[in-house]
Amino acid sequence: MSGIDVARIRADFPILKRTVRENKPLVYLDSGATSQKPFSVLDAEREFYETSNAAAHRGAHQLAEEATEAYESARAKIARFVGASPENIVFTKNATESLNLAAYAFSNATALASQGASVDPRFELKPGDSVVVTEMEHHANLVPWQEVCAKTGATLKWIPLTDDGRLDMSGLPDLIDSATKVVSVVHQSNILGTINPVAEIMDMAHAVGAVGVVDGCQSVPHMPVDVREIGADLLAWSGHKMLGPTGIGLLYGTAEILDSMPPFLTGGSMISTVEMERSTYAAAPAKFEAGVPMVAQAVGLGAAVDYLVNLGMQEVAEHELAMTEYSLKAITDLPGVRIIGPLDARNRGSAISFVVDGIHPHDVGQVLDNLGIAVRVGHHCAWPTCRRFAVPATTRISPYIYNDFRDIDAVAEGIVEAQRFFKVAP
Amino acid sequence: MSLESLYQDIIIDHYKNPRGRGLLQSPLGTAFHVNPTCGDEVNVQVATDAQGGLQIGYEGTGCSISQASASVLYELVQGLPASDAEKIRQAFVELMHSQGHAEPDEEVLGDGVAFVGVAKYPARIKCALLPWMAFQDAEIQGGLMPIADTIQG
Predict the structure, then answer these.
(1) Residue A387 resides in a domain
(2) Among A309, A340, A371, residue at a domain's last position
(3) Can you tell me the distance from the alpha carbon of A378 to that of A366, in angstroms, rounded to the nearest whole number?
(4) Is A149 annotated as catalytic?
(5) Exposed/middle/buried for B67, CB within 10 Å: 0-12, 13-18, 19+?
(6) What's the pTM value of the predicted model, to 2 decimals?
(7) Which portions of chain B are predicted below pLDDT 70?
(8) Which residues of A385-408 are buried (b: 16+ CB within 10 A; e: fewer)?
(9) Does the pLDDT at position A215 exceed 90?
(10) Cβ of B65 and A362 within 8 Å?
(11) Residue A38 domain-assigned?
């Protein structure tokens, strides 16, 4: 099927051995929400707490030195994973915080400029300026920009979608113009599965002098992503969707952009000097990391990166493609079931949303849950995307490295079972 | 736990054949509630008839549990004095918080007793409560929410 050995991988994930709902083996197909964690990640976190726990970047005792070293070497590992330098990687609480950090750079710069402070004009927004997103954004890459526009008077615009769930690129030259100050787009949609041509869009953003932001939450865990290839000024993603712990997110930024952005959360650690009247700030990434950092999570995420590198991200992507092709066929073969999103596996990830005629997505998910199959139901934090396709919600499978074709067969059987239970004739 | 314990036939019946569905001509109070985690929606309206009995209007989209719950709500409180309806509402809320251990009183809850299994599924309790929360809100907006003394008495 592909270059990775799913049976061997599954043995590394203790949770996959448990049963649910009265002794049913767990079929976990909700990795788009959060991935499961291998022993090596759990062990790394535990070992850190058992041997080196201290607050990083404070204190001069040996444990503090070890904690700082652990934190910074995790940063270096994660940077290498996406083709970046360590100083270009900011640790955040999650990807939502990463995107807010990006969005707040604009509203904060605008507020500072109104007080006469000197700010990089790229971050200062005025009425008439525009912010461009897409109609398939996760709320985390939509709501922060709505807030920025409400605070600054800038206009929010979005790239519309085609009926098959791709970006409608035809109007882009009009949408991204000299008024555009920021273009923030999702790399791989969490609800439609679509993989967007972000490098092309970043080029268009840069051609008009706009800052380019990419939400990589669903792409970085599933395919090789190199920041030099996609050309984004800022790339946000989360640790917990790529085998790492919860409580840690990432923001990559070019040195030049991070240097130009005002800080987001302020306080300890992120300063250079502090007086009662004013402060100056540390260089990035420290400028964006206020407070005692999440060292154990960083260490755990470093182990997750090791795990993925050891598998090979090219192999992970091939497995993803094989799962996508198999799932698309298995679901489209079922009468009375409709996929919301692209039907061909080209430029498409394995997260697949569908609706079953006559059964609400929640009820489909409940029948699957009763069979031990964990899927996501609802609007997937992409409510406008659901509206675009005139569905109240969807049921979504999102496989990962520990899933195989049998898991997809189980879903297909579960859908038929739901149709039987709710007495809808397909 | 069997699917049948969650989706009792009564629930499926109310879902497929909703009772009294539709909006009122002249509502005194209207409340539109959504479940932001899943997008289920329900719009509940209240008015009173000449005898002071409640008139209920509702519409919505969502899962079988939320929509059947709205239908059961209509069936249970339509035409009742607000104070009697409030006793039923409280009994239903209590049932939903029972973690499935309650023995609901069919005299009070009618078809609502079928929701006892829902209380074992924390993710679905909100679905069942959605119309009842909207009902309470609509009563408050319409000035029909009975004061505590009336309910006790």
Answers:
(1) yes
(2) A309
(3) 12
(4) no
(5) buried
(6) 0.95
(7) 1, 148-153
(8) bbebbebbbbbbbbbbbbbbeebb
(9) yes
(10) yes
(11) no
